Amino acid sequence: MSATNAALDLLLLIAVSLVPALIYLDWVRRTERFQSASWGPILGAFVYGAFFATIVAAILEAIIVGLGASVSNRYPGPEFLFLNQNSTLGTFFLVLVVAPFIEEALKGSGVYAYRAQLRSVADGPVFGASVGLGFGFFETFLYGVAAFVVGGLEAGIALILVRSLSSVLLHGSSTGMFGYGFARSRFGVPGAGTGSYYLLAVLMHASFNALASLATILLFVGITAISSSTASVLGLLAAILFAFAAIEHVRHVIAVADYPALLPAGAGRSPPTRR
């Protein structure tokens, strides 16, 4: 393959990764009809998620994996097996615990970085979704490049399309809910706030990863009534449904927060918009 063809293939992978994420971003932004957030800050939050949050999260996860490997090698007993990334238990610990906590924290930092742009509670989930969709775009592109190197252009595009229907939406949804909680705290809405919604984002992320890993989990716990291929398909379909349901919930939250006058008195009404 010539350098020119390789460059064109990479540009195609970027486009296939980027376009769905931007379509989702426009879809979420248009939910906020009363005072839609400006495209400039929204795209800035998207870029923050795409590069800063993704890269720093990858570095931190690599450090934790390295430390875990050192501990499990020094103490090879079963009590530290969850730190050994060569074991199934270690993989579960990374996918279900380490990645959700680190990635949601880094994506959440993007919402905090753009806190001055929040004019109302409805802006919180919009900016959160923007950061998350940016993260999902770049992570998906990197996975697509890895598949491209191993299996060619078709494999890279196929993986990107599958992740665009699942993981990208999940990242936008989980950070969208964090943004909602952050905005509630920032504007003084009583009830659950930033910390609770961060844990909700982590739970959403971990639940999605568990669905996507259904075949491995069933095999690990010894359930063999369902074949691995069937479990993989069922897990993928469940993960996609979960991601679409989650983004629809984020859009519902935005729509309700954007029209506080439609709520009954005292029913979680948003405070006046800051200017």
Task: Provide a descriptive summary of the structure in words.
This protein has 275 residues and is mainly α. It has one domain. It has nine helices and no strands. It has helices spanning 3-29, 39-74, 88-113, 123-151, 153-164, 167-186, 194-212, 214-220, 228-258. The longest helix is centred in the first third of the chain and has 36 residues, at 39-74.
What is the molecular shape? globular
Number of separate strands = 0
The string of secondary-structure elements, in order, is: HHHHHHHHH
Counting helices, strands and paired strands, the structural category is mainly alpha
Number of domains: 1
Helix content class: over 70%
Q: Give the biggest beta sheet.
A: none
Mean pLDDT, all residues: 88
Q: What percent of residues are in strands?
A: under 5%
Identify low-pLDDT runs: 261-275
Distance between the termini: 55 Å
Number of helices: 9
Based on CA atoms alone, the radius of gyration comes out at 20 Å
Quickly list its features.
275 residues, mainly alpha, 75% helix, disordered C terminus
SSE layout and pairing:
Blueprint: H1 3-29, H2 39-74, H3 88-113, H4 123-151, H5 153-164, H6 167-186, H7 194-212, H8 214-220, H9 228-258
Helix pairs in contact: 1-4, 1-5, 2-3, 2-4, 3-4, 3-6, 3-7, 4-5, 4-6, 4-9, 6-7, 6-9, 7-9, 8-9
